[in-house]
Specification:
Elements (H helix, E strand, L loop, with lengths): L6 E5 L5 H11 L6 H9 L4 E8 L2 E11 L2 E9 L8 H17 L8 E7 L3 H9 L3 E6 L10 E5 L6 H15 L2
Helix pairs in contact: 3-5
Amino acid sequence: MVDVLPLEVQDMTPADIDAVQVVEQASFTAPWPANAFRHELTQNRHARYVVARRGGRIIGYAGLWNAVGEAHITTFAVHPDARREHVGERLLLRLFEIAGELAKGMEKGQLALTLEVRASNLPAQKLYEKFGFRRAGVRRRYYSDNSEDAIIMWTDPIDDPALRDRLARLAAANEAP
């Protein structure tokens, strides 16, 4: 039996930015610069970012903004070498936990998650759909590197019982060996 190192999902810190940049550059043709992450972590009080580590190595990250009535996923990536190993699922579960924390104190049914994803990125769309995201529209020529369209996706409100049940099942499946 192969020994698999555990996956840890933790808050991103400025010390993580260099390793996040490795994942960013391996994942995107128009990567965010390091100073964008630094600004998000130190200046944007509405931003939350997390990293996924295995054996101390950052292999994925994700971030969201707390906006009025929504938790907007701003960036999400898993290193190509670590894809299809449930890293993205663990990152999404953590983002949903953060959204649940943000929703406390809000009027019931207020907070939903949203994101944009490249029209050509079918694996990512499938992952998001697994977590209850639905297509809600298109942003034409959204991506600056090639003018590709973005698919806008939304979830039901974070406190929706069906969404909560879906997340509980996914969390249980991700805890299984």
